[in-house]
Design goal:
Blueprint (H helix, E strand, L loop, with lengths): L7 H8 L3 H8 L7 H14 L5 H8 L4 E5 L12 H15 L2 E4 L8 H4 L10 E5 L5 H10 L3 E4 L9 E5 L1 H15 L3 E5 L5 H17 L2 E6 L8 H10 L6 E4 L2 H13 L9 E3 L5 H5 L5 E3 L2 H16 L8 E4 L2 E3 L11
Parallel strand pairs: 1-2, 1-3, 3-4, 4-5, 5-11, 6-7, 6-8, 8-9
Antiparallel strand pairs: 10-12
Helix pairs in contact: 1-2, 1-3, 2-3, 5-13, 8-9, 10-11
């Protein structure tokens, strides 16, 4: 059954007043009697009228809508922090009284036009994962003056807010934990497909060097969805033989654990593995030792920063590096005696 949306002229006819009077009552402008006010309010209730958000946005120049672009929807699986991040964004939107326009994927546009698509007035601000834009597009966003907060962004142009995590501190604590257990040859596996993940790879090299221990095999898959079985074969055939691996994130770690176990390699008895992020499945199914990042708090803070930028807060006050912590579970133990 099609039902026509209630319009302001329908309210005016129902209440027996002019359209201008209805507009004044709804916007609390001008002078009108209590009787007129009550009749308009009663008509609004009986006809279930809701003012047009589009019209109001045109009137006040704001939509109270925040654009959000994180990773593709398929990366909301339990080995990703995407859902935790989105939950935090939802918390922040509720607190700020904003709605969200979620960009599931980019339309078929040329790279140079993708940043521009956010400038069409549909959103008052933007929260976006930094690795989804090359440097030139980040500069377009910075030059646009659209309040924008980049997530997991070690380096962004002036004009943008940014939230990243302490990748160096997290990887260092992972290496220190393995060294304290007695491991002296540690490997790394992670696809450097973003500045954030690349920073973890660089931090690993620095951490093992600082400890004066050998870096066993270091594997950098070209894509995030990597061939875990092929990587495991590289690790098994490597010399010297590693006794522990630090993974770029929990997805890499959990994929490696499954591949090793398919070949009869026990984790942690034969090989210790540490992840990064503390995604939902890290504890729920993998019992994974990992580096916990506060994804939900990052999401919530990103909204606060976007709203603050829209209110005139300087961009350098909307930058934050979030602390991380080692969470020891069941995928690390001392190496077997040789």
């Amino acid at each position: 059954m099609n039902r026509r949306r209630t319009t302001i002229d329908m309210i005016a006819a129902h209440a027996g007043v002019s359209i201008a009077t209805v507009s004044n009552v709804l916007n609390n402008k001008g002078r009108f009697s209590n009787d007129v006010k009550n009749r308009v309010q009663l008509a609004v209730e009986e006809l279930r009228f809701t003012p047009s958000g589009l019209i109001r946005s045109l009137q006040n120049g704001k939509t109270n809508v925040l654009g959000v672009r994180t990773w593709p929807y398929w990366q909301t699986f339990s080995a990703s922090i995407n859902m935790e991040l989105l939950s935090g964004i939802a918390d922040g939107l509720t607190e700020a009284g904003f709605d969200m326009l979620y960009y599931m994927d980019f339309p078929a546009r040329k790279h140079k036009d993708r940043a521009l698509m956010f400038m069409d007035g549909r959103v008052d601000g933007l929260v976006v994962a930094a690795n989804l834009f090359p440097a030139e597009e980040l500069q377009v966003l910075a030059d646009s003056h659209l309040p924008t907060v980049m997530l997991y962004a070690p380096n962004v142009p002036d004009g943008l807010g940014a939230i990243c995590v302490d990748n160096h501190g997290g990887i260092t604590s992972a290496v220190n934990h393995l060294v304290e257990l007695g491991h002296s040859c540690i490997g790394f596996v992670g696809a450097p497909v973003s500045a954030d993940l690349n920073e973890r790879a660089v931090a690993f090299a620095a951490a093992v060097s600082a400890k004066g221990i050998g870096c066993g095999v270091a594997v950098y898959p070209e894509t995030y969805e990597f061939d875990a079985d092929a990587v495991v074969q590289q690790v098994i055939e490597s010399r010297p033989r590693v006794t522990a691996i630090v993974a770029g994130d929990d997805y890499h770690a959990i994929s490696l654990i499954a591949a090793f176990r398919r070949l009869g390699v026990r984790v942690p008895e034969d090989l210790s593995i540490i992840g990064f992020d503390d995604a939902p499945s890290a504890a729920a199914s993998a019992n994974l030792t990992t580096i916990r990042q506060p994804a939900r708090e990052i999401g919530r803070l990103s909204v606060q920063f976007a709203v603050a930028l829209g209110s005139g807060t300087p961009f350098n006050e909307c930058k934050r590096t979030m602390s991380v912590e080692l969470v020891v579970r069941g995928t690390t133990c001392p190496p077997r005696p040789r």
